[in-house]
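re: the backbone from monday

yeah here it is again, tokenized this time
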């Protein structure tokens, strides 16, 4: 884990409690993310997901702990780490295309204008935007289109780590479904490492290689790392028929409904918290054990 592409070691965050004291949001959280992995984090409101995201983005400093990317401790924001927020955060005075080229030109300063344009247009196209739409300003685009621009912009910059903070939270279910599939398409064409917050269990199963589960705050911890044992490519309408789908879903629902509360506040003193790896695979014949001793088969 310490050698992972992204390693989070003993991350702790405390905030003032507004009454002269302070409270601990999470303590000694440690986990790793490998290059090219798509990892989602799930947990109840207030457990500290956005706080972890802001620390990874370099927008906030932790009370304790270290984050290393490619072996280097990170500090402050960097073009190596891109963020997509729920509220799009596009520059309102620029067209969709210019919102993308703006970052690409900064990221690849040696590129010609034509290269920057072609690269940006290609990413916009992957998320379903082409023609007139890319020359419109954000106020002239629908919410779904704006979020497509944000996603295209983030991927086009090719950051080493892409952070997605509930990117589909403000979208209706139909638009959400379409853009989730576009996100998979654009991610599959890169070796991009993605860390994403979502409140949607089905979205997490569709998108992630692994789901990190957090217990409730205060004193929250990252308790489990659940592998999504459903092969890619994944299509929403087909994956629900995979034997592992409901087994994984039930495990996540159980955790969020019950165990996240039971385990809450059990983040222990100075010990390093490492999430337990959970691998659920109903496709293995009865009585088969995985050879990897790190993995635990779960019976639901
Ligand atoms: N700057 C701050 N000062 C004081 N307390 C804060 C600050 N930022 C966050 N908190 C508190 O830290 C806790 C975790 O907040 P955070 O936004 O990280 O949770 P979250 O899991 O992302 O929640 P949600 O799912 O609702 O977005 C909350 O109790 C919140 O009130």
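seq for it, each position gets an aa:
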């Amino acid at each position: 884990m310490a050698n992972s592409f992204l390693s989070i070691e003993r991350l702790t965050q405390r905030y003032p409690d507004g009454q002269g004291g302070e409270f601990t949001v999470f303590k000694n959280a440690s986990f790793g993310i490998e290059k090219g992995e798509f990892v989602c984090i799930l947990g109840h409101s207030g457990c500290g997901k956005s706080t972890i995201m802001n620390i990874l983005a370099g927008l906030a400093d932790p009370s304790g702990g270290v984050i290393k990317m490619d072996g280097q401790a990170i500090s402050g924001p960097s073009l190596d780490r891109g963020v997509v927020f729920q509220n799009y955060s596009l520059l309102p005075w620029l067209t969709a295309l210019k919102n993308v080229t703006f970052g690409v030109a900064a990221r690849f300063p040696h590129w010609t204008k034509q290269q920057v344009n072609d690269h940006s247009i290609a990413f916009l196209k992957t998320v379903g935007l082409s023609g007139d739409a890319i020359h419109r300003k954000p106020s002239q685009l629908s919410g779904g289109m704006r979020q497509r621009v944000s996603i295209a912009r983030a991927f086009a910059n090719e950051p080493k780590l892409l952070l997605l903070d509930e990117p589909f939270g403000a979208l209706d279910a139909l638009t959400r479904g379409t853009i989730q599939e576009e996100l998979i398409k654009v991610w599959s064409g890169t070796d991009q490492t993605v860390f994403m917050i979502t409140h949607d269990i089905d979205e997490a199963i569709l998108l992630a290689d692994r789901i990190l589960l957090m217990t409730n705050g205060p004193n929250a911890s990252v308790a489990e790392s659940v592998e999504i044992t459903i092969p890619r490519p994944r299509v929403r309408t087909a994956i629900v028929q995979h034997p592992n789908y409901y087994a994984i879903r039930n495990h996540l629902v159980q955790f969020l409904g019950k165990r996240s509360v039971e385990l809450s506040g059990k983040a222990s003193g100075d010990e390093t918290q490492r999430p337990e790896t959970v691998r659920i695979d109903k496709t293995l014949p009865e009585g088969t054990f995985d050879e990897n001793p790190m993995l635990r088969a779960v019976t639901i």
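Helices lie at 49-57, 96-107, 113-126, 143-156, 173-188, 201-207, 236-239, 245-262. Residues 15, 25, 43, 45-51, 217 surround adenosine-5'-triphosphate (CB under 6 Å).
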